[in-house]
């Protein structure tokens, strides 16, 4: 667009000084960034109508659409536009207030871009319908379908399709029963390179029990499950592949639990971005539970105890902020947490999560890592650790001014869900690839430094046909066992001796402390008798009586 046209859109009959300022704005937004066949859009692509030269405003879209209709062209000119890079699409993941990440999807007939949460737990694109009275979106995009789907596939006029959703909204875990119809839309992914598709089938929520509130408009389902025709080919992932929006059924996710302009969260459709791997990291693969799912098995997982859970399955999901556990697994986590912090003021609610009555900075140093051990396709196991900084979240009660530290390990509400959900709290530590291009099996790729995550190392074996090698191997093994036994015995003796010395030192200090308090008691006995009558139960330090140690015991502990 020419500068003069942009100036008219921006300022109308603006003064000369404002026109000069507008020219500078347009020049700034017209700078082109090229990199190997694709361009990177600025984050602030629209400021009124001063925009990047490769990003078309809603006003220009409407003008082009009217012009095309007047010329008898029924195809939307924007939806026909192809990106410069045909191999993959990079889309930003923006973190919104309730810790969810969203991507921007432009529907053909919509008032503005829809903010959708990409999730591996759903197979459909799920949107709020304008007529849903129990639905609410802070963003508030309105849309209309481009066509209606046949009734036999769940289109309007058929019995409404029922679905269950569990999601996070404003730091609270919600579950909702929704019903709706399937419709047909034309849509574009708003990414570094724009990618579009026609005749996508989406699910629209018509009713919700009790209600469905979100900061965006819905979900962008990436599960390879069953879609509107009750088969895998009708899932959204297969739709966007079959219609050429992406070139491969692969996507990679690089994410944080914060927004960053220097290192933004990103999802690459049609491939993965190895440039975003941490230094020294490589990709280890785990096969999924089934071709219709992204669930993977883990051998074991632990927290304070090395193995709290064994033989469970997990879904890695960028559409989930935290780490969610089935009811039984959450009870096991609570018990292990209490072992780690037997005397700390930690509270675990029945339906959500656990929290400490303090700031996270006071407990983070001593908080154990969460660790998950997965069987890889190489036959070895790999243990991935999630540091406390990824699952501790500060909160403050605005009414009581009470500081709390929440653990982002929550209980799932639906009893029939039998797997963990490893959300962004897990994913921010490893680049994750979802690979569905194999016709027989899906794979999850987890980036890591192989030297730090390897749990089993294959040792070279001796030649079974060579008796001398067997004998040498046996002798070496006996020698190693003998050395280990000697070292262990020496360490045991040293540990016992140290414990005895420490115990003797503590007993001596305790005796000194008791003698000191006895002398205080003798000197102040008269004062205590005089003040006995004036004592009340309004002592602000009375809470010490409810703790596991008295004030004197606490002072003795300080002396020790």
TrEMBL record:
Residues 452-471, 523-548 are annotated as: Disordered. GO terms for biological process: proteolysis. Keywords: Aspartyl protease, Hydrolase, Membrane, Protease, Signal, Transmembrane, Transmembrane helix. Residues 101-447 form the Peptidase A1 domain. It comes from the Eukaryota. Coiled coil: none annotated. PROSITE patterns: PEPTIDASE_A1. InterPro entries: Aspartic_peptidase_A1, Pepsin-like_dom, PEPTIDASE_A1, Peptidase_aspartic_dom_sf. Residues 1-22 form the signal peptide. GO terms for molecular function: aspartic-type endopeptidase activity. The chain crosses the membrane at residues 476-502. This is Peptidase A1 domain-containing protein. Belongs to the peptidase A1 family. Gene3D superfamilies: Acid Proteases.
């Amino acid at each position: 667009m020419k500068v003069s046209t942009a100036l008219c859109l921006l300022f109308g009959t603006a003064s000369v000084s404002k026109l000069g300022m507008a020219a500078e704005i347009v020049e700034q937004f017209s700078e082109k960034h090229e990199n190997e066949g694709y361009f990177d859009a600025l984050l602030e692509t629209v400021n009124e109508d001063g925009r990047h030269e490769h990003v078309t405003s809603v006003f220009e879209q409407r003008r082009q659409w009217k012009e095309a209709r007047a010329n008898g062209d029924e195809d939307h000119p924007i939806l026909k536009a192809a990106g410069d890079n045909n191999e993959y699409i990079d889309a930003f993941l923006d973190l919104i207030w309730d810790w969810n990440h969203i991507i921007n999807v432009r529907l053909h007939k919509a008032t503005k871009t829809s903010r959708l949460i990409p999730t591996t737990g759903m197979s459909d694109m799920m949107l709020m319908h304008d007529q849903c009275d129990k639905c609410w979106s802070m963003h508030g995009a309105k849309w209309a379908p481009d066509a209606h789907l046949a009734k036999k596939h769940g289109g309007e006029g058929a019995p409404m399709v029922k679905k269950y959703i569990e999601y996070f909204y404003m730091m609270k875990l919600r579950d909702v029963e929704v019903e709706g119809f399937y419709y047909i839309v034309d849509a574009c992914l708003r990414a570094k390179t724009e990618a579009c598709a026609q005749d996508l089938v989406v699910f629209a929520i018509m009713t919700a029990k009790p209600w469905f509130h979100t900061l965006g408009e819905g979900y962008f389902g990436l599960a390879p499950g069953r879609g509107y025709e009750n088969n895998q080919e009708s899932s959204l992932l297969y739709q966007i592949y079959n219609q050429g929006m992406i070139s491969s059924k692969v996507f990679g996710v690089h994410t944080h639990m914060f927004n960053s302009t220097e290192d933004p969260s990103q999802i690459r459709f049609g491939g993965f971005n190895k440039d975003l791997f941490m230094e020294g990291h490589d990709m280890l693969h785990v096969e999924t539970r089934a071709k219709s799912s992204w669930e993977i098995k883990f051998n074991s997982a632990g927290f304070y105890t090395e193995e709290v859970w064994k033989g469970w399955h997990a879904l890695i999901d960028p559409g989930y902020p935290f780490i969610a556990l089935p009811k039984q697994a959450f009870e096991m986590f609570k018990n292990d947490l209490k072992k780690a912090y037997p005397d700390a003021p930690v509270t675990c609610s029945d339906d959500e999560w656990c929290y400490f009555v303090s700031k996270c900075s006071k407990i983070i140093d001593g908080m154990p890592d969460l660790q998950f051990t997965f069987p890889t396709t190489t036959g070895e196991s790999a243990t991935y650790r999630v540091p406390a900084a990824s699952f501790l979240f500060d909160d403050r009660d605005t009414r009581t001014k009470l500081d709390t530290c929440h653990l982002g390990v929550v209980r799932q509400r639906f009893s029939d869900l039998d797997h963990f959900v490893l959300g962004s709290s897990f994913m921010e530590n490893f680049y994750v690839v979802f690979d569905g291009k194999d016709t027989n099996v899906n794979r999850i790729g987890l980036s890591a430094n192989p030297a730090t995550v390897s749990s089993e190392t294959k040792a070279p074996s001796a030649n079974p046909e060579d008796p001398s090698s067997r004998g040498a191997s046996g002798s070496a093994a006996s020698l190693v066992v003998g050395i280990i036994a000697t070292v262990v015995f020496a360490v045991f003796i040293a540990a016992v001796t140290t414990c005895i010395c420490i115990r003797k030192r503590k007993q001596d200090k305790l005796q000194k402390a008791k003698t000191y308090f006895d002398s205080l008691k003798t000197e102040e006995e008269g004062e205590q008798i005089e003040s006995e009558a004036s004592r009340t139960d309004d002592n602000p330090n009375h809470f010490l009586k409810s703790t596991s140690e008295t004030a004197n015991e606490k002072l003795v502990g300080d002396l020790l």
